[in-house]
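Weekly modeling sync, notes
Attendees: S.R. (lead), two postdocs, one rotation student

Agenda item 3: backlog of single-chain predictions. S.R. asked that every request posted to the team notebook include the full sequence so nobody has to chase files. The rotation student volunteered to paste the first one in as an example of the format we agreed on. Action items at the bottom.

Example entry:
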Amino acid sequence: MPGLDRRQFAIGLTSLPLAATLPRPASALGDSGIHVIDMGNAPFLDREAAPSGLDGAEACTRPNNDFLQTLTNLGVDTVIRYYSDRNNANLNCKNVTRRERAILAEHGLALAIVYQFEGRRKNRYTGAQAQADAEFCLARARVIDQPPGSTIYFGVDSDAALNSDQGVLDYFRAVNRIFGGRYSVGIYAAGARCDLIRRAGLAQRFWVPEAPAWAGTRDFLNSGQWTLFQNKTDINNSALTGGLGQVLHIDTDILNPAAGNSIGAFTGDGAEKIYDPARLRAVAAARHWVTTDRLEVHAEPGGEVVGHACIARTVHVLSQEGDWAWVDLDEDGLPDGWCRRDGLAPLDRMPRWRRTDCKLMDI
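Predicted structure, as returned to the notebook:
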């Protein structure tokens, strides 16, 4: 971040005012404070050279072990990966493979699954389409030996207007029928879609994207009915991803402590991944919404502006001192600066998003 040496925080933290009175940031202790990420690309160094198409998934052979070890070292313990009908030029090796599952397990990382293909195509979600999608997922589950009872999320990756309520209901009814209880069903979708499927009893887990303008998202998050919230997207320049041999893009996710201690992920031996409730509460409590159109981040309280955050987006509050909060913007546990506390609200009080001239920073 301009004007701020973030690595200095991890080494000594001596250059900031009040540093002696504040705890060291999480990642300086080996914990970023985030423990679930999702990523469309497989963590392989040779993925750009892999052919497109489903079979191209098996062409990824050189795991990015430095990246995976960095995740583990910084406290990440779960990676959400994809089933998808095809890989493509932008997401070679998108389909998770049995080999990738084993490599993740070697690094102590649990795996969760989401199916997503052409999620933003208008009128894609119908009962007939669900037949093909669910059967495809069952076939991929056999390939990677996904344990029965774990969850497959289905990505309805668009605002509610692109697909009718009836079509989405028919889709999830068909998925449940075809699964026949072999796997639990999750949905990744705008809040209005999650709530529709929850009320119909057609999914057990509900994952909300970082899309604060999408229909019903604010109401659903504030209702406390969600399982996962994808709070940061397209991170490529943080301690979690930087300097690891290739351009990496990850998203980070928060678990709802009130929704239980599982998201349907599984470990290398096929056991359900269970999370420590105390840690879930701590992670959620440290995330705050930005409530002003543009919240400036300063190198020191009242000092030089070195960054900003926009309304209805989250920051990780590392500590508070008087009227100021020490915050991390990109979920690697390292502080990016100070912001006013009166511009923040707890995670259970998402503000209403509104269009402003505030632009998201490249993180």
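Discussion: group reviewed the output briefly. Confidence is low (pLDDT under 50) at residues 1-21.
Action items: rotation student to repeat for the remaining queue; S.R. to check formatting next week.
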